[in-house]
Amino acid sequence: MPLQKTNTETIVLVSFVVLKLFLHCFLINPVYELHRDEFLHLDQANHLAWGFQSVPPVTSIFAWIIKMLGGGTFIIRLITACFGAGTLMYSWFIVKALKGDLFAKILCMVALFACAIARLDMLFQPNAFDILCWTATYYYFIKYISTNAPRFIYYAILAIAIGFLNKYSIAFLVVGLGLGFSISAQRHIFAVKHLYFAIAIGLLLVLPNLLWQYQNHFPVVKHMKELAATQLDKINRIDFLKEQLLYYIGDLWILFAAAIAFFVYKPFKNLRWIGLSYLITIGLFTWFRAKGYYAAGLYPVLLACGSVYLAALLKTGWQRYLKAIPLITAVAMFFLILPYAYPILTPREITLKKEKFETLGVMRWEDGKNHHLPQDFADMLGWKELATIVDEVYKRIPQKENLIILCDNYGEAGAINHYSTFKNINAVSFSADYITWVNLDKQIKNVILVTSIDDDDPDRKVEKPIFERVSKINSVKNKMAREYGTSVYLLENAKIDINARLRAEMKED
Questions:
Q1: Which of 14, 81, 383, 443 sits between 20 and 30 A of 284, alpha carbons compared?
Q2: What's the CA gap between 370 and 357, in Å, rounded?
Q3: pLDDT tens for each residue of 153-190
Q4: Alpha-carbon distance 318 to 97, whole Å?
Q5: Exposed (0-12), middle (13-18) or buried (19+): which is 491, by Cβ within 10 Å?
Q6: Helices 151-164 and 170-182, interaxial angle, to 10°?
Q7: Pairwise CA distance, residues 41 & 134, whole Å
């Protein structure tokens, strides 16, 4: 490749990466705070382990890095945006491995920006890194198929192992790939000894987490059962498939091109396992009523393949004048979905456009009902207000070593810990990982109790007989917040052994 061409492509790639970092650091209106789930993951930095009730350990390592860098909102956004930038780069590498030209690479980059699922790169959750691991896995298997160099098998299995330590859902990809290779012409990969050596290494890497799961009675199983009972059971399988179209509506030209290319494009003859793995994995997600974004990791490789095929079709003759169509479609769709996929509008502005939001289905929460804001947006409000209320109570209690801050859910506990002006305030909950972080080494006499609006005992009839004084301090007043109405109570001078009471409740939970 000529040096000038190489330099041009490098500049283009770097430009897209910088744009990605910029957009995801600044595409959030300042009125919004961190997301409920982010607080839990950030708190895991203070409790490093080989596993957690909710997620594998990789997220906690990134949380620790964020903590070492100061833990500010900009750092959190930047780290997460870097995962999205990594997905861009691997997608670019896939196009390059498939002999795609500069137009194909640009088209793929624009397509990744245009899809609504790119908003996952905004939040510090396992999802963004999950997509990166899936994309890397596809890239390395593509490189192996085209070069027969064994090192790429090891890299692919390494990506899977790291992905497993980040989010267990990558197991669906493993099944899809395994069956995809088995029923394609590339089944000969199972005769390669390096595959089994690589799998052995991968199993060694994930073994500490598997042992942690065993020692803790496989909390992932309990977590999946709770998820299936409280959220996934409300997901319609048809809606899951509709969401696949909705998330990538601006990229349908490219995805359609990829589907055709696996059958008619001769250079893709050895890549049909990609299409097969997609169909199998999507089928599994549909059967298990997965959330729409669970399948996000499947699409970067499809967009890369589709971009290469479209670029080849539109390279010469009159067809080259059609190149602008998929680009313009993707760019136009990006700007159309911008206010619906990203929290750039204030809650008031969203309220004024409520009908449009409802038409697109983004106002539907995990309970299957439409609400006043998209769920992710409502989960980014009210936290600072809650932390301020708790701080006002906390600072007037003299014996803080005999105090516990007990919250209804992990979002409340994590938000208080993150936004409180007091270091090591240590709010806890009996939900998610916080139940394992409750410290009852010292006798509890006072409790700051944080309860959600749907609490069934707002008058605290249960607590009044066992404390000398029970006072309601305040509640979250932001009606747009999912935590609207969350109340803070001060329970003073326990008359019974609160530690024993809490241990009994923890054991029951």
A1: 81
A2: 10
A3: 999 999 999 999 999 999 999 999 999 999 999 999 99
A4: 27
A5: buried
A6: 150
A7: 21
